[in-house]
Amino acid sequence: QVQVVESGGGLVQAGGSLRLSCAASENIFTDNEMVMGWFRQAPGKQRELVASISRGGTTYYLDSVKGRFTISRDIAKNTIYLQMINLKPEDTAVYYCNRVGRAPFDYWGQGTQVTVSS
């Protein structure tokens, strides 16, 4: 079973920045079409995909984070990152990582809490 550990969250004021990391226990980009993504879930809200990246580097961003978040990957380290700048209170959520589309992991990690104060 693939295990993931999300880290890098914290408490930050609006306009601040954080860099999240998602480290997986094994190869997560098993082919060029494999996609990994960051999800977030705020209390009382549905989990949503924030950003994703394929092994080949194709990216997707939720409209509300475009221009502020940057997803990247280190294939050799089985790790993806999310650089978050100009954070807004509405970004407050628990952030999780998982595969997107194909072959999602059976179990989610514990996530990392991002709290943006005004």
Primary descriptors:
118 residues; single chain; six-stranded mixed beta sheet; 48% strand
pLDDT average, as an integer? 96
Main sheet strand line-up? 2-10-9-4-5-6
- Proportion of strand residues: over 45%
Can you give the helix content as a percent range? under 10%
Shape: globular
How far is it from the N-terminal to the C-terminal residue, by CA? 39 Å
* Main sheet makeup: 6 strands, mixed
Radius of gyration computed on alpha carbons: 13 Å
What is the element string, with H for helices and E for strands? EEEEEEEEEE
Structure in a nutshell:
It contains no helices and 10 strands. It is mainly β and 118 residues long.
Description of the molecule:
This protein is an all-beta fold and 118 residues long. Helices cover 0% and strands 48% of the residues. It has strands at 4-7, 10-13, 18-24, 35-41, 48-54, 59-61, 69-74, 79-84, 93-99, 112-117. The protein has a six-stranded mixed sheet with strand order 2-10-9-4-5-6, with no helix packed on it. Strands 1-3-8-7 form a four-stranded antiparallel sheet, with no helix packed on it. A hairpin with a 6-residue loop joins strand 4 (35-41) and strand 5 (48-54). The chain starts with a strand and ends with a strand.
